[in-house]
């Protein structure tokens, strides 16, 4: 039953975000793996639209926050408001108390705002003054970045990047998809945007997450998954080029994220076991923001995706 409901949600996302099945699948993987997404791409690639569609397809509250340099932590967390009629301070909840948060252009906010978001993402709670408040059980942050503009931005530190389950890179659609987008937007102007007939209930999401954790993974596949992460820390064992290109590898948090994402993808494919292909499908998304390349890699014109692709070629699959 849960698989059918997620398939209906996937079909709805694909009908609203055209030509990006990998993006819509990643949204569902993150939802099943109980993680947060960082989405990077030029303006106009339906990043915000995709999150809006996900929010419409899921039972719960949604809030969009436009990150700007003058944003304050209290603008996210909320703050204590003085009520003169009672002489008491009352906590006014901020946007982070919604179920799905769109953090638009997250790198435009200063470090103190980013750190407030970090606590919420990592601990599922926020602290205001001397009190700590738990966040909803269903809590998902989808953050966007625009790679074309760097002026007036605050690059996310590695510690915060590591809190994101996956980092997605979006590209422009082809000509056929572009024509379909034109027709879709014209139709919506005339008839309005379609809603999902029956949004996915939160309890169904929690049940599906338990099913995902129960997906079978053979010991050989599990060892392979671990070795793919270890290779980022011990690159000299596989290649002298990798050793020159990699400064720092991925942490155990990457191993946990890779395991959960591979299981979630297998579940979405309606299988009860994980294959190496499931790991390959999510490998770059999980690790591209968790490895730090050397200056030599930059000089050689090598990016994180190329390094990770070479690791997949060098680490023997079961």
TrEMBL record:
Start and end residues of each ChlI/MoxR AAA lid domain: 246-311
Gene Ontology molecular function, alphabetical: ATP binding; ATP hydrolysis activity
Record field: transmembrane: none
Pfam families the UniProt entry points to: AAA_3 (PF07726), AAA_lid_2 (PF17863)
Residue stretches making up the ATPase AAA-3 domain: 36-166
The organism's place on the tree of life at top rank: Bacteria
Gene3D superfamilies: Magnesium chelatase subunit I, C-Terminal domain, P-loop containing nucleotide triphosphate hydrolases
The entry's keywords: ATP-binding, Nucleotide-binding
Similarity section: Belongs to the MoxR family.
Record-given protein name: MoxR-like ATPase
Species in which this protein is naturally found: Pseudidiomarina maritima
């Amino acid at each position: 039953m849960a698989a059918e409901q997620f398939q209906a949600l996937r079909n709805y996302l694909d009908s609203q975000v055209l030509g990006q099945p990998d993006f819509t699948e990643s949204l569902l993987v993150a939802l099943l793996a109980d993680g947060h997404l960082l989405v990077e791409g030029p303006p106009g690639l339906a990043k915000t639209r995709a999150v809006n569609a996900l929010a419409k397809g899921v039972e719960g509250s949604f809030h969009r926050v436009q990150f700007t340099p003058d944003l304050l932590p209290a603008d996210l967390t909320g703050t204590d408001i003085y009520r003169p009629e009672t002489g008491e301070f009352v906590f006014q909840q901020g946007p982070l108390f919604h179920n799905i948060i769109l953090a638009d252009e997250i790198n435009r906010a200063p470090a103190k705002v980013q750190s407030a978001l970090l606590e919420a993402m990592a601990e599922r709670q926020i602290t205001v003054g001397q009190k700590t408040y738990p966040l909803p059980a269903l809590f998902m942050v989808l953050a966007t970045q625009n790679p074309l503009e760097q002026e007036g931005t605050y690059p996310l530190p590695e510690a915060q990047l590591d809190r994101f389950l996956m980092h997605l890179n979006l590209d422009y659609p082809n000509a056929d998809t572009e024509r379909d987008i034109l027709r879709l937007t014209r139709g919506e102007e005339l008839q309005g945007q379609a809603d999902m007939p029956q949004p996915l209930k939160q309890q169904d999401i929690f049940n599906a997450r338990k099913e995902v954790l129960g997906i079978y993974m053979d010991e050989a596949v599990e060892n392979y998954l671990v070795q793919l992460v270890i290779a980022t820390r011990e690159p000299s064992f596989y290649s002298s080029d990798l050793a020159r290109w990699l400064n720092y590898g991925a942490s155990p948090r990457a191993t946990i994220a890779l395991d959960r994402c591979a299981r979630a993808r297998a579940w979405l494919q309606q299988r009860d076991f994980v294959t190496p292909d499931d790991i390959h499908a999510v490998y770059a998304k999980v690790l591209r923001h968790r490895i730090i390349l050397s200056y030599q890699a930059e000089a050689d014109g090598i990016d994180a995706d190329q390094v990770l692709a070479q690791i997949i070629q060098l680490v023997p699959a079961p």
